[in-house]
Amino acid sequence: MSAVTRNQVFTAVHTVGGLLPADMLVRISEGKATKDLRGLAPADYRIPGSRSVRDEAERHWDNLKSLWRELREKLPAEPEASVRPDSTGYARTDWVMPLFEALGFGHLTPVGASEIKAADDDTKSFAVSHRRDDTLVHVTAWNVRLDKHQGAGSPAPQSLLQEALNRTEPHLWALLTNGRQLRLLRDSNALATAAYVEFDLEAIFDGELFSEFVVLYRLLHASRFEGRDGDTQWTCWLEVWRDAAIRLGARFLDDISEGVRLAIKELGTGFLKHPANGTLRENFDRHTYHAALLRLVYRLLFVFVAEDRDALHPPETPAEARKRYADYFSTARLREQSRRRRGTSHSDRYEALCLILNALGKEEGLPELGLPGLGGLFDDDPADAPLRGLSLANTHLMAAVRHLAVVRDTEAQRWRTVDYRTMDAEELGAIYESLLDLVPEPNADRTFELVPRAGNERKKTGSYYTPSSLVDVLLDSTLDPVIDAAQHRGEKKAAEAKQTDPEARETVASELLSLTVCDPACGSGHFLVAAARRIAKRVAAVREQTPEPPVERVREALHEVIARCVYGVDLNPMAVELAKVSLWMEALEPGKALGFLDAHVKLGNGLIGATPSLLRGGIPDATFKVVEGDDASVAREWLKRNKDEHKGIVTLDAEMEESVSVTNTAFGSELRDLLDNSPTDGLGQVRKLAERYHKWAESPAYLNALHIADAWCAAFMWEQTETAPAPVTQRVFLSLQSSDGKGALPETHQEIVRLSQEYRFFHWYLEFPEIFSVPDSSAAPGVDPVTGWAGGFDCVLGNPPWDRVDFKDQEYFSVVEPSIAEISGTARRTAIVKWAAEHPEEGDRYYADRRKVKSSFLFLGSSGVYPLLRKGLSVKGVNSLQTDQLFTERFVSIISPKGRCGTIVPTQIATGASAQFLFQELTQQGSVTHLYDFENGKREKLFPAVHASYQFALISLTGRGLSEPAARFAFFLGHPEELADGTKVFALSPEEIALINPNTGTLPVFRARRNADLTTAIQRRFPVLVTEDRKDGNPWRITFKHLFNLTDDSDLFRDRSGLEAEGWELQGNIFMREGERMLPLYDAKMAHLFDHRWNRYYGLGNDDYEHVPLEDKENAYGVAQPRQWIKERGRIPTVRKSKEITIAGVDLRLAELEWERDWLLGWRDVARTTDERTAIPAFLPKAAVGNSFPLMLPGTPAKLTAALVATQSSLVFDFVARQKVGGIHLGLMTWKQLPVPHPDDLAPHTAFLTPRTLELVYTAWDMHTLAEDLGDPGTPYIWNENRRAQLRAELDAYFLHLYGVSAEDADYILESFQTENGGLKNNEIAKYGEYRTKRLVLAEYDRMAQAGLSLENPLVDGQTYTSTLTPPPGLGPRHPAKTPDTA
């Protein structure tokens, strides 16, 4: 983050730390209201009549000018270092106080001796001079420097006021002045450096800068600080403007990203068109050319920032050298001229620019221009080769610079100058990353474009850029505790050594500088920069003995922190370069070289690498699984060979070790000595360190260790064909540790190296041996048995890619052959085969890329590096791996036992089946600190390119040596600010999570703390339906089954027209012919609570259905018509995989399940918490049933089964279900973990439950077999809506009592069945004019309470309880008996 930064529009306005960016100040100064910028009208400033804000400012200006002239007679202008004190106090009384009166503050209230009390410490107070309501105003003496200590133990005024804001509740904004400068501050614990807007009052009034006084007046008027409608400062106009600035900043990133894209286009075209660049055109490669252009643009941006921050020249640079550079060579001059000149065909400007860029990469720099050697980004690199020696016409260079210097403000519809002084490293990173979704496209006319991938709208910057508000939440919970612990350790060391200041402070600082923070998918380095700022601020705070240290001290500490504490890894080479640029920019100090980061920021696939534990086990059999492109017979042969070598059947060389050596302690020691004892202030020193590091990294012992680990990984990626090189089997693997490597053929060694480069294997314990220690013995203290290493990072942070490990043809061909990307399905597969045949070289590349993804999946899912996610692949229905979940398991594996990690990933990691074992392990160990779930677009789109309804979570975890007694959770948040609402956040202990979902350990999705409390209480009372790890865990003896799969078994389905054409006759909803039957195929849409006739189909489309009319439900012979039918008996002939086979029909499938009843039951898998009801079980007549309605077949008597369905149909059961459904499915995993009484507990209640359930279900003749099994030989009950409502109300009230729900909680549960657009409550109000269900249920609840209903005390109809229905439940009106005609 920049230090004090002057924008290019104002002379006397300074912005620091991005509190309100310069562009927002420009908008405020213009005084024009927009949809994003309100509160600028005269009435908003309490200005009466027709005067404008500018008129009012001018009225005060004249008076203040005269006061300033009088002040200057007594206190003339002096250099900052020698300002004399105002011994009479004239400046305060006759200048500062009138200034505040002019700004509408009136008479400021002195705080006095009581001071401002800290909210978090009764003994701490702050000597702030004044206040006005919630606004703190601190006025210091005239000669006091706002950023300088006021003596021992007395912090700088800036530090004092910032800490007061941070540690008090009502005070959000404050003003600080000495009469010469006036600053605006805001509460912010998250900011690592100072953040404020400063007005130079001396410059404004000495220079009579009225326009800048108007800005001051508009921004600092008292009305800006007041909460609207008497509310707190959170609603004041300053806060509104700050929120607007954040939103506009995100849009500005898109605007400037477009400018960068156009600049690259202009440069790319200019180089290609220049007549002197024939070599470029002859040897053109668009990808290397694109990479070189990106590096050139980033060098330009870096110089823009360095110049505008006055950080390019060393402090001691002679004035004449600075002037020579500024007048003839600076990019500031180039940017200014680009706005006024088009340029010529000459190339002198580019030659001058190259002189500067090349000089920054030389140790000696360019003394004539005062330029130091920076190195880093300016070092000569092979990636620069495509542009070496090229010429570029001035016209193209000037156009490119113009695109970078000014951008089109899409919101204000005007051109704006880009202010690089205030641009953050993260913002530059976000701009760069927005370009990564664009592909280079050279044209025949020698023009160059960056175009979006076909089939995808270009992703906006926001899709990559993690909002700082989210980053801050993770840093608060993940990094801050680590920093606090380090400070405590340092203080303890200093105390034990009996040190005194300043030695004690430096001991604490050293402990802080020993912290290590890593982002394994670092991208632009956003998290790394943010983490470095926090650590640096604490280091500076310790050294300066103030929580809010001066900016200069923080910047000095940043240089140390970035050199020592920060680590990053990324798979993309340009992203690695970008992360370095972001860190260099953050640590930029005038005159100092860019630091050496190669040892800490590395290129590699952080997911694919070996661990010592797995290496010790040798080559696993899983290595030889067949993937796309393999020969199965070759794979079997190699598998057998590997098994034999593991068993010792194959003779090994006598000197061959039985396991590989994986210790890295020598590497770690060597690297620590190398890095800790090398100064890096000058470029020559940096390059000497780089030379020593690369010499160490190329040592034979280290390269051999890498080769062994590479070989283990390569074994999974090996092509298993007759023509492939000899594979890495166990014997070959063991032989690799010999110095000569003769145990393997040269072709094998070559293939290991090739695969390592292709997949970019990354072995954490070898890449960072100073972080991970691998002793000789795996049983050594501190060694993680899963990974085989000890140690780890103190903190791991990141927002890894949200993606599946899958090859996407559409995405691939959007670049290679867009016409193929535009088609889908079988047509695309056919087109690919044809294309590959016509383009054999490109076809081979396509199949190789597909194989790369498939082999990666094999490694990730089978190698054992991710044991918990591998276990998840064993769950039925889980066949994919999520990159974000893999990174989460990786994060956990690389933190130290006392470390912490934080990540932003889709919420599915905690609620879905694939990561259930990972999350269960984390919760059971007490590793979860918090999980905060966000709905991306609930309040505003936090990630603009992600769907508004997408849910992601901020997860904070501890290392295995720590344990949280309870984790904090919040769901469906719209913005991090909502975390301050105590009702949104609740705590669950590991035991409570296991109680709620004992089988999977996954999370329910609670919208409020009360939901969590209710669910926990209910689940303490009743067990889940099936507990999988207990022998007695299925007391209902239920068999679960998908009877038919609607996709895989679709070849068995028959439609109406086809059956009728073959002479089948429809009777009800069953087709008959010659004694055979075709049974209807039910799916989830056709059934509902106590209703097997909910919807019916009238066509074959998914949406060709309608509600069954009431008249049909009132007809005992009415049925629900399906889309399709399936044969009842015997087997069904079909063709699958080109083979003629027969498949079992309905009866055979039910016989396999040993189900002998002529009715079925199950539940609707498709379920949403926004529907009227979510958990929907139902009885069905015997039929074919699709997988959207899973069957649940108990082994209990029919009456108990009916009681089970009644239980699962109740509102209280549904309430719990709604806490556990995170998407649109209520799958088996969730259904098993819903609370149901034990059959023995429910049996005494069947006399009450069965009659009501029977009357609700038995309304048609096709359910008569169920009635008979329930002991009722009578005719079906008549469908009566009002009677059914009362019956269901009695059941719902009954189960509220059985589940132990109080009257107050019963009301709450009933109220929860509503949404903004409907739900049970709102739908009933619209239909009946009241929430009928609630009225009926609560009335019966009260009557049953009076009757003493409990789990131990069932109600008895006619004795302890009398229904309001006449006739009573179970004795309701029935249809007439069948006659010969109706039968």
Automatic annotation (TrEMBL):
Gene3D superfamilies reported for this sequence: Vaccinia Virus protein VP39
Listed SUPFAM superfamilies: S-adenosyl-L-methionine-dependent methyltransferases
Signal peptide: none
Enzyme type, top EC level: transferase
Keywords tagged on the record: Endonuclease, Hydrolase, Methyltransferase, Nuclease, S-adenosyl-L-methionine, Transferase
InterPro entries: MethylTrfase_TaqI-like_dom (IPR011639), N4_N6_ade-DNA_methylase (IPR050953), SAM-dependent_MTases_sf (IPR029063)
Keyword Cell membrane: no
Known EC number: 2.1.1.72
Residues annotated as domain Type II methyltransferase M.TaqI-like: 565-810
UniProt catalytic activity: a 2'-deoxyadenosine in DNA + S-adenosyl-L-methionine = an N(6)-methyl-2'-deoxyadenosine in DNA + S-adenosyl-L-homocysteine + H(+)
Pfam families: Eco57I (PF07669)
GO molecular function, one term: endonuclease activity
Region feature (Disordered): 1357-1383
PANTHER family, A to Z: DNA METHYLTRANSFERASE A, DNA METHYLTRANSFERASE YEEA-RELATED
Descriptive protein name: site-specific DNA-methyltransferase (adenine-specific)
Organism: Streptomyces ambofaciens
